[in-house]
Structure formats: C-alpha cells, structure tokens
Write a structure and sequence with these properties.
Elements lengths: L9 E5 L3 E7 L5 E7 L25 H5 L14 H17 L7 E6 L5 H13 L4 E7 L2 H13 L5 E5 L14 E8 L2 H11 L4 E7 L2 H4 L15 H22 L2 E7 L10 E7 L6 H13 L4 H7 L2
Parallel strand pairs: 4-5, 4-7, 5-6, 7-8
Antiparallel strand pairs: 1-2, 2-3, 8-10, 9-10
The protein binds S-adenosylmethionine.
Length: 311
Amino acid sequence: MQSIEGEYRQILVVLRDREVTYLTSAKGKVSRLERRTETKQTAVGTNDRHKRYLLNEGDDVPAMVDLGIFTHEGKVVAGMYNKFRQINRFLEILNDVFKDRTEKITLVDFGCGKSYLTFIIYHYLVNIRGLEAEIIGYDLKSDVVRECNALAEKYGYTSLRFVVADVTRDPLYDGHIDAVVSLHACDIATDYALHFAVTHDVPYIFSVPCCQHEVNSQIGFGGDMDILLRYGIVKERVSALLTDSVRALLIEDAGYKVDVMEFVDMSHSPKNIMLRCVYTGKTSHSGAEQVETLMRKYHFRQTLYDLLCGK
Ligand SMILES: C[S@@+](CC[C@H](N)C(=O)[O-])C[C@H]1O[C@@H](n2cnc3c(N)ncnc32)[C@H](O)[C@@H]1O
C-alpha cells in the first residue's frame, strides 16, 4: 500500500468475482473494503463460449472440421471464434425468417469464399431441420470453389454446389430463388447481389456488406456535412454508412421492407451491419430521389443506383 499513500484518495480494483476499494483518510490512514460481485458475462470472454447457438461447440458437423472452424474434438479453433459467431448469427437471422417453412428452400450465396456460411446453412436446413434445400455459392476463386465442391461431395451434400463466377458480369442461376445471401462480399459485389435479388423477384435478402470503397474514393465536399469528410478515417466510415443507407433506400423503393440491423457486436467485427430485406411489393421512388440529390451534392455515384435506376 506504500505506493498509493499520498498519491490517491481512493482506488477501486475490479476482480472477476469481487471489487476491492482502498481509501486514504485525511490523516493518511489506508483502509480496505471488499465486496463480492456477480460474475459478469463478457462479450468476448470465455462465458460467451457457453451461449447456445444453432451450431454449438461439440456438435457433430465434420464439414466444419474440414473448413477449419472446429477441431477434431469439436472445439472451436482458436482464432476462428469470430467467424463461428458470425455464421451462427447469420444462420439465426435466416432461420428466423424461414422458421415455419416446410417446402424446399433455394438459396444463392454471393462471394461465398471458403463457404463456412454456405455449409452451415445447408447443414442446418437439411440435416437438422430435414428440409429440402438447394444452395449455390458463387466466387471468383477457382481453387476455393474446387475445394468447396470436393467437400460437398465428401459429405454427400448433393444439392450444395459452388460455381466460379464474377457476379458483376457472369450469367447466374435463373430459376426460382427464395433468398440471396452475402457475407462480406467485397465492395460492389454486394451491389450486384442486391441487384440480382431485386431483378429476379427474390423474396428475401440477407446481406452483410464490407469494403465499401466506392463512395469513399469519390465523395467530395458539398454542403453542411463537410466536417464528416475532412478526416480520413471518419470519411471512410461515413462513406460506408452512406453506401449502406443508399442501398437500403433503393431496395425499399424496389418493394422490400428493409431492416438495417446490427449483425454482430462491434467488438467481434467492425463489418457488422446487415441488410435484412423482405419483399412486400410496396414500391416507391422517394429513395432514388434522395440518393440523386446526395450524389449531385457530394459528387459521387453508387453502383446499385446505376444498376437499378440507370446511369
Ligand atoms: C471477404 S470474402 C468473404 C467470404 C465469405 N462470404 C465469408 O464470409 O467467409 C469475399 C469473397 O468475395 C469474393 N468476391 C469478390 N468479388 C467477387 C465477384 N465480383 N464475384 C464473385 N465473388 C467475388 C472474393 O473472392 C472472396 O472470396
């Protein structure tokens, strides 16, 4: 206690199960008070590992082992916990929309990458819920697509397939689709996913955008909000939020109810906004008008606007 004498009047030490307060009186006498506290649930701590998900540690999903999410003992691989949480949360949101569904579900994943999400959706719908599901994952990378197809074959996931495609220009599946999903599809790949959904009468869209560079690279001073464009990191974040707001407005115009929701806690991923869109048929033009005004004023263009409303 020598070191606190004369330095501080009060020190609070917070431990896992108790708080200790050291108080220094006017005469320099130090007293110690201790209070037991509840063990707090932390967002990223070990306690969170026991939260019940749709996919849980210990579940027998061999494909998750091959994908490097689970160890052979069924534990989440160190370093993959954020991805584990993201795919669980995504699955939860998707499953909530389809909870009463008994007929076949057809789903397309734009920018599926290693396809953790695609595999877990398939596993959950087919193996756990016993539904018929057809799922296609698109990605640019042929080696990754090859590995994903080999894995689907290995586990007899007969209606899960992966296709090499540039979603910004290649022809894609043209049959009925119930949902378009995209998890961190880079930059404008997200706009193409949204555009595809809107133009193919897809009733549900679940999209978590990332790398929203397009607006950030063009936007310039133009009005009352210039302060938000002055500092690089603020401009980058504002541009990303503006991009997703523009997307949400345009999808609303196209007849969807759009929820812009927190996907996972910010501490688990900064790419944490999901656009959850459900087709209602209530179309409008007011979103596009607001977007046009903003684009003129702040000197930028946006791919989804160009795709849906013409250049
Ligand atoms: C950040 S990764 C996300 C992968 C996966 N969805 C996930 O969350 O783990 C983005 C993926 O999008 C793919 N991608 C980017 N642009 C694309 C395009 N134009 N067409 C198809 N795939 C694209 C990339 O190859 C990459 O695998």
